[in-house]
Amino acid sequence: SISMVQTAEGVLSEFSSMLISMRQLALHAANNGSADEQMLQADQLEVEELLSTMDRIALSTQFGTKILFDGSNAVDGVAVGDGLTFYGASPVTQQAPTKQGYSVDIEQVAARAEVNAGRRMSLEEIAKGASFVLKENNRVMEMDTNDERNLKKNIQQLLGNFRRSPETFSRENTEARLADLIARSLQKKADESGLSVIIVINENGMLTVKHKHYGSRPNFAVSTNLSGLFGEKPGTIKLSSGGQDVSGYIQGDLAIGEGQFLHGTQGSPTEGIIVQYDKELGHRVVYIKDEQGRVIGQKLVKQTNEEMVGKDVEGYVHITQRSVVYQVGANRNQTISFSLDNLRTRQIARGVENKSEFNSLADLDLTSSTGAQDSIKLIDKAIQDIGVLRGNLGSFQRNSLESNLRNLRISSENLTNAESIIRDSDMAAEMSDFTKNQILIASGTAMAAQANQIPKSVLQLIGSVTQ
């Protein structure tokens, strides 16, 4: 078992080295100021060769006759249902008791924390200058429209168009374009500062700030010098709210929600299952009718949780359990399991958001600036995933296999000592019986000899008298 794990560790070490080489190539391609088309093609060819090598290693690495990383020694699954995605399972996860799989029933849709402005921004206050402060964890972003050269220039141009020709450039249209301009500038500034927020103008023309991640944990704060926007007074700090974790049941057992992910309950057959429900509450169109029932308009109404999830289950999760099982004791069910993930490039770095729409490591394309940047993102995710697998494998070897081996050696030594003690006890008992028997034999012999002496003594006495 330990030898098999060490073989797998050697493969993961080689994968880590190849991923680092790919990242260096992606960085070189991203530096397009010093790279021409031929150099980009050369980088791409080298990356494709590395990807091909990774696939070959994954499909050919064996321990005995067992192929390790082709997915045949891993727990796998698939989710069936609108909005459901299978994300993972563990070696302790049991296969579903029915052909349909484990049922997934969503009770609460996940939501992101957000802050909504209380009103629209006016031309007059934008002309004077608007400042914003966003804080998320330990990161802070500040922006003043008067300090941003390009932004200020664009604002002045839109204001000038309105003042010169208000008939052509209406107030409402100009305010909407200014708000959109400020929102895009805030988004760019937030991205540069490393804040995980999304800044948009909502359907009512008001500024909305949302966290990129779902759940109750992510949060942020925002403030501005514009009174009534995020608070009655300028500079009022408004904390985000509304973040919720998804909640629901897997096969009737209450699951643990974290963001958009449901986790199977520990100790249940669903332990280790992770499934994502990626739907979120949006808006639906409601038609406005007059007294005669004729449609005279429409409005957007936010969906409710009940409308989204309904009463029926949202879908099912099918689990295929093929984890490697090791017998670590002499008795029944004394086993431990470990899942050796599928390391083909089509299965690595999946689910990473990117502009190039790369689905996995196999899709890397360094021939464009955007592709190179997105490739770096996917390679970083792959390095992280391989690192986690190496850590789990090393922990399994040290804390499970080697620890169990030490315990078995101690047990073997104790059994040997116990056998020796038993043998010593048996020998002592036999020697005691032997000694007892020897004493009895000696006593019997002595008594017989003494009995034989009596007649001889009588005869001697008789002989002496007759003389």
From TrEMBL:
Subcellular location: Secreted; Bacterial flagellum
Annotated GO MF terms: structural molecule activity
The organism's place on the tree of life at top rank: Bacteria
Residues covered by the Flagellin N-terminal domain: 2-73
Alphabetized UniProt keyword annotations: Bacterial flagellum, Cell projection, Cilium, Flagellum, Secreted
A Pfam family of this chain: Flagellin_C
Domain Flagellin C-terminal positions: 376-462
GO cellular component: bacterial-type flagellum; extracellular region
Gene3D superfamilies membership: f41 fragment of flagellin, N-terminal domain (1.20.1330.10), Flagellar export chaperone, C-terminal domain (6.10.10.10)
Annotated family: Belongs to the bacterial flagellin family.
Function: Flagellin is the subunit protein which polymerizes to form the filaments of bacterial flagella.
Protein name: Flagellin
Organism of provenance: SAR324 cluster bacterium
Lineage, broadest ranks: Bacteria, Deltaproteobacteria, SAR324 cluster
